[in-house]
């Protein structure tokens, strides 16, 4: 944890949690909570049903600085929120039996007894934190697994008015940079940057087969969740197919061998399992991917309608065969913020798959007319991305 931007502490933040000393004491909006809608603020503070909270606001039992308010009004730092006296008792009854752990300046170094440790922290930028998520740790709880990064954060910061929240997600078996917001403002800004394309995410990935392109390529597909697979898998779809969404990424080879290739992928959209599905769709499934690797075409090819390029000269050390690792060989390498702040970490791979130096980012590119088709398209370097790539 950076000393310049420590997590909120009890000493710094006297308004943490709901007071248990007096039922008449009113919550004060802290800096980390500023900008939230009133209902969000109340839900995070009280953990009560939103319909109940909405009724309290509508009937005037909840007020901001003494005035009536609307459920979707934005709260600001220092606002005093008046609640009905019985709200505190209801919140206490719904709270976990486990007492909240106190926050200290070394909160990230001393984990609660009942929680596994947090992953290593890469760095901070104000209330935005970056962790190195290991493969095997889900971002959020789900069916069959209660442990996750978000649940560990909730345990560490149980007393904080705003629980640090993952800004985006990585698949369970994907390792690497994962951003966490420690304030609502940081969360909103980071998610806005993801939506408008000003936050850049890059991945490194080992794929099966010899990648045939020497220069950066654009992969374009339409993807949709597969109802036949219980919506747990994603499949390529025809342009315009119902419920499909466009998926775009730029791919540059870092190392090409006979049986496997190391690629640098710059995401331009953020679809579920996007990198895994797109690479499998063009015949180069991610090594270790049991979900999409088995269904990949056995013949490496450029999809119909795409621009075919000659195979590049061989790069790196050729191997006729490569050992099959147990883990998914996909790693979130680098996140670049709109302000230029970079969070990065090398993958934990070893042996023939090791990456020991941070590669240069994928250069800004422009794409040719694609004619509405899907597949692989060549790119040319340019000072700014073409509008097509920013959509």
From TrEMBL:
Region (Disordered): 1-20
First-level EC class: isomerase
Matching SUPFAM superfamilies: Alpha-L RNA-binding motif (SSF55174), Pseudouridine synthase (SSF55120)
InterPro entries noted in UniProt: PsdUridine_synth_cat_dom_sf, PsdUridine_synth_RluA-like_CS, PsdUridine_synth_RsuA/RluA, RluA_PseudoU_synthase, S4_RNA-bd_sf
Record keywords: Isomerase, RNA-binding
Domain Pseudouridine synthase RsuA/RluA-like: 128-281
EC number: 5.4.99.-
GO biological process terms, semicolon-separated: enzyme-directed rRNA pseudouridine synthesis
Gene Ontology MF terms in the entry: 23S rRNA pseudouridine(955/2504/2580) synthase activity; RNA binding
Family named by the database record: Belongs to the pseudouridine synthase RluA family.
Protein name: Pseudouridine synthase
Species this protein is from: uncultured Desulfovibrio sp
């Amino acid at each position: 944890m950076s000393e310049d931007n420590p997590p909120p502490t009890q000493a710094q933040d006297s308004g943490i949690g709901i007071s248990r000393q007096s039922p008449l004491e009113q919550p004060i909006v802290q800096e980390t909570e500023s900008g939230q809608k009133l209902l969000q603020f109340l839900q995070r503070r009280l953990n009560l049903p939103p319909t109940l909270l909405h009724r309290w606001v509508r009937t005037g039992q909840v007020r901001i600085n003494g005035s009536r308010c609307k459920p979707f009004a934005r709260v600001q730092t220092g606002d005093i929120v008046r609640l009905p006296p019985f709200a505190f008792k209801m919140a206490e009854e719904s709270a976990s039996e486990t007492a909240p752990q106190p926050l200290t300046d070394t909160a990230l170094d001393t984990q609660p007894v009942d929680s596994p440790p947090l992953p290593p922290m890469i760095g901070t930028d104000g209330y935005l934190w970056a962790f190195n998520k290991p493969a095997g740790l889900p971002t959020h709880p789900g069916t069959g697994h209660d442990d996750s990064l978000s649940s560990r954060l909730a345990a560490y910061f149980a007393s904080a008015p705003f629980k640090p929240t993952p800004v985006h997600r990585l698949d369970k078996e994907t390792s690497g940079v994962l951003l966490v917001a420690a304030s609502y403002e940081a969360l909103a800004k980071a998610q806005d940057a993801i939506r408008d394309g000003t936050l850049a995410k890059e991945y490194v990935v080992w794929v099966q087969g010899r990648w045939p392109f020497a220069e950066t390529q654009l992969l374009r597909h339409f993807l949709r969740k597969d109802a036949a697979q219980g919506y747990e898998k994603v499949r390529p779809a025809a342009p315009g197919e119902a419920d499909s969404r466009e998926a775009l990424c730029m791919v540059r080879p870092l190392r090409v061998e006979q049986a496997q290739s190391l690629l640098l992928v710059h995401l331009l959209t953020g679809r579920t399992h996007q990198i895994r599905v797109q690479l499998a769709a063009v015949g180069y499934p991610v090594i270790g991917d049991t979900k999409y690797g088995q269904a990949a075409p056995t013949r490496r090819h450029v999809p119909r309608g795409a621009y075919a390029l000659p195979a590049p000269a061989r790069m790196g050390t050729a191997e006729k065969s490569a050992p099959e690792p147990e883990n998914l060989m996909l790693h979130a390498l680098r996140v670049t913020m709109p302000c230029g702040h970079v969070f990065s970490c090398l993958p934990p791979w070893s042996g023939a798959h090791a990456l020991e130096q941070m590669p240069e980012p994928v250069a800004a590119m422009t794409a040719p007319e694609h004619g509405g088709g899907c597949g692989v398209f060549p790119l040319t370097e340019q000072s700014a991305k073409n509008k097509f790539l920013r959509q």
